[in-house]
Write a structure and sequence with these properties.
The complex is a heterodimer of chains A (201) and B (562). By secondary structure, chain A is mainly α. Chain A has 6 helices and no strands. In chain A, helix 5 crosses helix 6 (164-197). Classes of the chains: A mainly alpha (201), B mainly alpha (562).
């Protein structure tokens, strides 16, 4: 028998969560006007079967963690040590959440550029050479991807409340130019076909 | 009918657009496969958003291009730097790198490329021959059998995906549960939405997949601050000229090794959850055991390059056989392909080849064509690979995270999907941190709705659950599922506990019952054969006095996620 370890805590949390979800599964009700036909499976049955399976496995996991505890986890040295260990993933999540939060205000293009540049600077070196590389990489990659999705795949990317004008201008001019080139190519193609099919006088 | 379907499929594949997309896919796969830490599955996942605008055939053909390219790309890093680009090319480094260091990098690469090519072509031939036959068996399946098959696929994946079977099963069940969130398919009642309107329709598959897989993987790659700032290639690689003619001759002259390794690859690919990360090591091991020059393996032996490279490419054919014939994924990459089919409203099932013949034959043709494209593009991408090794991991991760958001948004033009990506990214990272494998979660999400529909059909047909054990195929999969659940413990205790000696004979004996119960003459005879073989094994164990002989080597499954 071992002391309380990480796996025991996770198993207990899992079991509590499963209990809560099982309770919540009784809130799934078929509307009165859409009564189940005979032999029709109720909407709560399958999730309950899964939750029972999860509960059984959760109990096994709990027993396993007590009878055969895992080797003690690497000591990270308190909250600061834990932060140091997981610093990069935490920054990535935080930066991504910030990026999603500002999209409605700055739009996909500007918010994306700020996100890519910001994250590279957070994770990488901060000297002048690296910063120049970050700026160039951001412009090349974000601009390139925006061009592919907005102009070539014609996806309506989110426009920002503050930057909508710029994105509109880019969409009209850059994507418009691409569309014009496409039309010109089609026209030349069509012309060539027309000439090829024209009778030789 | 078959000729007509092949003609229609060929007319869809051999268009300028599709071939161009496939070429791009192969190049992307070759480069992604060559980057250490960047798995083939991740490359296929990241290509998925681009395939929405395409028709299902073009989308699948592009993904197959990435898949085949990725399987072959790993050899570039493995041979030139000694670090395998993907887990599929681990064994390639054993002889490829020494041969390159002996001053023959062009020959080493050439042998790897040609072995990959022939391995792929052999497995494509097996795919074309076997998949329709297996699909005929699949057509015998009733909902009970199909439900049991899916549970088996999930169980075997869960038990092989990590070091702890219980954690694997919990991960698989979590995946199934995630698929239940939102409106149910039968009566359209919302489930577990807790009043949040955005999840009323359930979570879109792609953000969940990219969040769990790509997001989590990237964050693990940049977790170490020093490694995150290093170049992707540990040492500087240089482009070399491939010796095609000499390499092709060398590979063809060792055809026994080539065919054996390819067949090992196909067989491993057919097994659910076992992928190219296992097949390349197994094939290398077999090549060494059967070689007259076994002592030269590890010093730059040509057979040591042929075996893993032929096997890893051939695995793709095996995985596609299962996907097309039975409608269940053979590995993580075919799970993504099934997800792509679902996005295009094509529901995978054992009747897939009959219901969607054009898509099915297009997959056959695309798999053949992708191998030729791989051969053509390898020399070109060698220079690209050398350039990519100079990129730093943190830069690649930052750009790909943005791309993930963009790709996920492009699916439905819904901003909530990007938040889904974040939540599942965090969830996946936390699960990985606590030692839960991710692959069973993804498989659970893919199979969840299909399994629920099969169960609904079972209940609609009868309230009686006994067909699960009285129908031969259902019983067969239940027995296989049970034994595969305990396979992990068996592997751990083999050579240490006496009961492990009875495990395999008991499996043969138990499996013989459903096989014996099947219709016809061949299968019952096969059932009797299985039973007799089980008894023979038991008799041998009994004669040797049930002696255990110390711990045995285990097959590493750590690279399953690639």
């Amino acid at each position: 028998m071992g002391r309380i370890n990480r796996d025991t805590v996770i198993a207990v949390i899992l079991l509590c969560l499963v209990g809560f979800l099982y309770y919540a599964s009784y809130g799934i009700r078929t509307p009165e006007f859409d009564r189940l036909a005979p032999g029709q499976m109720g909407p709560g049955l399958w999730p309950r079967m899964i939750l029972i399976g999860l509960a059984v496995m959760g109990v096994f996991y709990l027993l396993q963690s007590i009878v055969d505890p895992p080797p003690p986890a690497e000591k990270l040295g308190g909250l600061i040590g834990w932060y140091r260990h997981y610093r990069n993933p935490i920054w990535c999540f935080a930066a991504f959440a910030a990026f999603l939060t500002v999209i409605p205000f700055l739009g996909m293009l500007i918010a994306g550029a700020l996100f890519v540049f910001g994250l590279m600077t957070l994770l990488g070196p901060k000297n002048s050479v690296a910063l120049k590389q970050h700026v160039l990489t951001t412009l090349g990659t974000v601009g390139g991807m925006w061009f592919i999705f907005a102009c070539l795949l014609e996806v309506q990317l989110p426009k920002g409340e503050f930057t909508g004008g710029l994105e509109e201008w880019l969409a009209v001019n850059v994507c418009g130019l691409v569309a014009s080139i496409g039309e010109a190519v089609a026209w030349i193609d069509g012309g060539a076909c027309h000439l090829a099919s024209a009778p030789i006088v | 009918m078959i000729i007509e379907n092949i003609t229609i499929a060929a007319s869809e594949i051999f268009t300028l657009g599709t071939i161009f997309l496939m070429t791009l896919g192969v190049v992307a796969g070759l480069i992604a496969g060559a980057i250490p830490g960047f798995t083939i599955a991740m490359a296929v996942v990241l290509v998925l958003p681009f395939t929405f605008g395409m028709n299902p055939v073009q989308g699948l053909a592009t993904m197959i291009g990435v898949y085949v390219g990725g399987l072959s790309g790993g050899l570039m890093a493995g041979i030139l730097t000694g670090i395998p680009g993907t887990p599929s090319s681990v064994a390639t480094t054993f002889d490829g790198f020494p041969l390159a260091r002996k001053g023959q990098p062009g020959l080493a690469l050439g042998v790897g490329v040609w072995a990959s090519f022939f391995g792929g072509v052999i497995s494509a031939a097996v795919l074309v021959l076997v998949a329709p036959q297996l699909a005929r068996i699949g057509q015998e399946f009733q909902p009970w059998d199909y439900f049991a098959l899916m549970m088996f696929a999930l169980t075997v994946t869960a038990s092989l995906a990590g070091d702890n079977m219980v954690k694997g099963l919990i991960a698989g069940l979590i995946g199934l549960f995630v698929a239940t969130i939102g409106e149910d398919a039968v009566v359209g009642v919302p489930r577990f939405t807790f009043g949040v309107d955005s999840v009323q329709q359930g979570f879109a598959f792609l953000p969940v997949l990219i969040g769990l897989f790509a997001f989590t993987r990237l964050l693990s790659d940049v977790q170490d601050r020093q490694k995150a700032q290093q170049n992707l290639g540990a040492s500087s690689a240089e482009a070399v000229r491939l010796e095609h003619m000499k390499a092709a001759r060398e590979v063809l002259s060792r055809w026994v090794n080539l065919v054996r390794s390819s067949l090992i690859g196909v067989f491993i690919g057919v097994l659910p959850a076992a992928g190219s990360s296992i097949s390349n090591i197994l094939a290398y091991d077999q090549a060494k055991k059967n070689s007259k020059e076994a002592d030269k393996f590890g010093t730059g032996h040509i057979d040591g390059i042929i075996a893993p490279e032929a096997a890893n490419n051939a695995t793709a054919g095996g995985a596609l056989i299962v996907m097309m014939a039975l409608g269940i994924p053979g590995d993580i990459i075919t799970a993504v392909m099934l997800g792509a089919l679902l996005i295009h409203d094509v529901v995978p099932s054992p009747t897939f080849i009959t219901d969607e013949p054009v898509i099915a034959y297009s997959i056959f043709i695309a798999f053949f064509v992708a191998n030729f494209l791989m051969l053509a593009m390898q020399s070109l991408t060698l220079r690209g690979f050398v350039a990519v090794t100079r990129v730093r991991m943190y830069m690649l991760a930052s750009v790909i995270l943005f791309y993930c958001a963009l790709g996920v948004f492009a699916l439905n033009n819904v901003q909530f999907d990007m938040w889904t990506l974040l939540w599942f990214g965090i969830g996946g990272f936390v699960m990985r941190m606590f030692g839960f494998p991710i692959v069973p979660v993804i498989l659970g999400v893919v199979l969840g709705n299909i399994a629920e529909n099969a169960l609904a059909q079972v209940i609609a047909l009868s309230n009686d659950p006994t067909p699960f054990v009285t129908r031969p195929w259902s019983l067969f999969f239940i027995v296989l599922g049970l034994f595969s659940s305990f396979f992990h413990i068996y592997q751990k205790r083999r050579g240490l506990s006496r009961w492990t000696l009875a495990f395999i004979p008991a499996m043969y004996l138990t499996l013989s019952i459903p096989v014996f119960m099947m219709e016809g003459t061949v299968r019952p005879v096969l059932g009797v054969g299985l039973g007799l073989f089980g008894l023979y094994l038991l008799f041998r164990r009994h004669r040797s006095g049930w002696v255990i002989d110390g711990p045995k080597e285990r097959i590493a499954t750590g690279g399953l996620e690639g």
